[in-house]
Amino acid sequence: MTPPGIFWLTRDFRFQDNPALAAAIRQGPLLALFFLDRQLMAQGAASRWRLERALKAFDAELRRRTQGQGVLILKGEPDKLLPDLLRETGAREVHQSDWPAPEMRRMQIQVQDALKPLNAALILHPGHLLTHPANIRTGQGGTYRVFTPFARALRAFGPDRPVPPAPQRISPFANPPSGVAIKDIDLAHDMKRGNSVLTRYALPSGETAALDRLEDFLDHAAGYADQRDRPDLDATSGLSEHLAVGEISPRTVWAIASGRIRERPETSDAIAKFLSELIWREFAWHLLIDFPPMAKVPWRDEWASFPWRGPNPDFAQWSRADTGVALVDAGLREMRVTGRMHNRVRMVVASYLTKHFLTDWRLGLAHFQDSLTDWDPAANAMNWQWVAGCGPDASPFFRIFNPEKQAKQFDPHGHYRHRWLAGWTGEPAPEALAYFATLPSGWSVSRNWRERSDLQHGRSRALDAYHRFRGDG
Ligand SMILES: Cc1cc2nc3c(=O)[nH]c(=O)nc-3n(C[C@H](O)[C@H](O)[C@H](O)COP(=O)(O)OP(=O)(O)OC[C@H]3O[C@@H](n4cnc5c(N)ncnc54)[C@H](O)[C@@H]3O)c2cc1C
For the chain, what is the HEC assignment? Predict the structure, then answer.
């Protein structure tokens, strides 16, 4: 029996630019493997729900290419299960795309240790990032802490090129052990909101959908630079979910978008701005690799003693999307119904929690982690720290978004608020009503939203706390 080429899927559900998959195919008949392990189940429910869709789309495409064989799904911990699998099949290497989240890093080390006695190894491959962090260092050899010089250095170095796509016909490993049937998996069984609502508002998933979305976005990208902050318009790419589960690689996005700039130079400003956003994603990952506790510990040490409020009634209102501030509630309801939220609104919502409500950014981070279908451990942590003022290159704490002014500026006709907020004005939109279908029975939220906020009080309390903390008040 020829040993298989083992490909351990994590967050790289794609056939294009997947060096780990390519290496496994080169090695022997393919055995694609996915673990239902503790690390996966510790991730947020919406993110697991989205990952299941990615897994199913990948599995269907793999069956097409192998004429019938899908992903082997094993329930349990990789470091416990892989040694037996290698003994059984005779394989000596496991290929994985490096997803450098801290929990995965720990598991990679455990797997390496477990494979050593068999003279076998876990081989990590690139593809999750534009380039390896070792390639983007400051003059002193450190990690960049400020975005603009980071972006300059990355552009000067140039992102890695995508590798060729996997072949249309792939020979599968003939005798795979049995695993969990794909139709039996239900990764988000514990989701505390309407699974069916999320499904109704889902964007198409899978690699083909990701590539189509990118092409479609680039066809209409001319207004991106001016309109990307407008939640009432559909002006951004919507690629974050696809990137979060690896249905498209950032290197592919970069290569295709750069090609468009060459073909249609008139779109170059807009596409350059879009690529700069992709560099924010990269910056977040390089920072997380350099500082793995970024989701738990303030990046700036001095913020460890900031007097954040812990769980409190304001936080409960915020997490139910019922604060009485229109743009904040609209954004949080959009997230409940769709798993998505516009970037400008994420900033306003996060600012409102950490400043007007003076509540610990880690509570907001955890709520987003559980609710976002595009959850990304690096982007989520960096952005929460950025808004709270304790992160690298952060917005200073005293810069407090006024949600009403933000709404006037970025939702000038109120279309976004009307879409998501029943009772705000006129007849409620279907999306606004869908929010009520997501509520657990114990929550009482009025169907007739009313404004009730004291923005001035929140702002003054935040600034007082900040000045006392700095010792200048
Ligand atoms: C508090 C907070 C939490 C966030 N949590 C996440 C998260 O968990 N997952 C996530 O993918 N993004 C997160 N973001 C960043 C951003 O809001 C989303 O990436 C963006 O809304 C996705 O929409 P898009 O794909 O249409 O973006 P586009 O404007 O089309 O941008 C293209 C791509 O660039 C990247 N990008 C854009 N903005 C940022 C940013 N500020 N930081 C890092 N990468 C960025 C994304 O990969 C995005 O898909 C967060 C932002 C804030 C303020």
Answer: CCCCEEEECCCCCCCCCCHHHHHHHHHCCEEEEEEECHHHHCCCHHHHHHHHHHHHHHHHHHHHHHCCCCCEEEECCHHHHHHHHHHHHCCCEEEEECCCCHHHHHHHHHHHHHHHHHCCEEEEECCCCCCCHHHCCCCCCCCCCCHHHHHHHHHHHCCCCCCCCCCCCCCECCCCCCCCCHHHCCCCCCCCCCHHHHHHCCCCCCHHHHHHHHHHHHHCHHHHHHHCCCCCCCCCCCCHHHHHCCCCCHHHHHHHHHHHHHHCHHHHHHHHHHHHHHHHHHHHHHHHHHCHHHHCCCCCHHHHHCCCECCCHHHHHHHCCCCCCHHHHHHHHHHHHHCCCCHHHHHHHHHHHHHHCCECHHHHHHHHHHHCCCCCHHHHHHHHHHHHCCCCCCCCCCCCCCHHHHHHHHCCCCHHHHHHCCCCCCCCCHHHHHHHHCCCCCCCCCCCCCCCCCHHHHHHHHHHHHHHHHCCC
